[in-house]
Design brief:
Elements: H1 3-9, H2 19-32, H3 37-53, E1 56-68, E2 74-86, E3 90-97, E4 100-106, E5 110-115, E6 120-125, H4 130-139, H5 155-160, E7 165-174, E8 177-185, E9 189-196, E10 203-210, E11 218-228, E12 245-246
Parallel strand pairs: 6-12
Antiparallel strand pairs: 1-2, 1-11, 2-3, 3-4, 4-5, 5-6, 7-8, 8-9, 9-10, 10-11
Length: 268
Amino acid sequence: MSRGTLEGMGRGWQAMAGVALAMAVAGSGVRSAHADEGQARELLKEMSDYLAAQQVVSFTYDSDIEVVTTDLQKVDFASTGTVSLSRPDKIRATRTGGFVDMELVFDGKHLSILGKDLDSYTQVELAGNLNELVDRLRIDYGIAAPGADLLLSDVYDALMDNVIDVKDLGSGVIAGVECNHLAFRTEGVDWEIWIAMGDAPVPCRYSVTSKLVTLGPQYRIEFRDWKTGAEVAKDDFSFDPGSAVEVDIADLGEVDGIPDLTPEGEDQ
């Protein structure tokens, strides 16, 4: 995830009794966990290679993005969605939350985004593969696409860029699935990933915490219902805007699911 993405998250855990004790317990667990850097890198590479080898993939996800307001209140916005992709150049992604209801379709030639809650859509010519799509979304259109690095053809290289510290924290359980728990650090962010053990090392949870924004907002995404190959429902990646009105991509509005939290009367 780019530094710009995390700064965007900063636009936007309530203190709990006993937090000092909880931190002490957590710290003790980390000290006893495996901190083998080589093994952590190997586990991440196995996940990357497995994902890259799957030509057709679908999954469901739940995401939470923390936002720090101008008066230093940390709030959390939750959304859910689905992703289906066919390598090298097709994807359909949906996202629904309290402030967003959108669908993104890319067929290798056109990028289409439907704001169902806005009753509007945009479509632009954009030829390329999924790697190029993610770059264009972030650089040209300012769409952060958090977690999209996990969809690239080489997840390992994308995630390990600028990493300065690596830890294998042992195992964890996400939604009943035993996972390898790995932690990584860069100058700007700390990030963790939980990878399912077994023959299908898919990511079960991925979280990124900013170190460059006050109060360290976090983005977290959990994955479930992974399907590959023949398990995936066929999709021709066609786009149907229905009765929505076409607008320029610059006029589509925010699709990140974060409302304007600027206090009334205060300039943004």
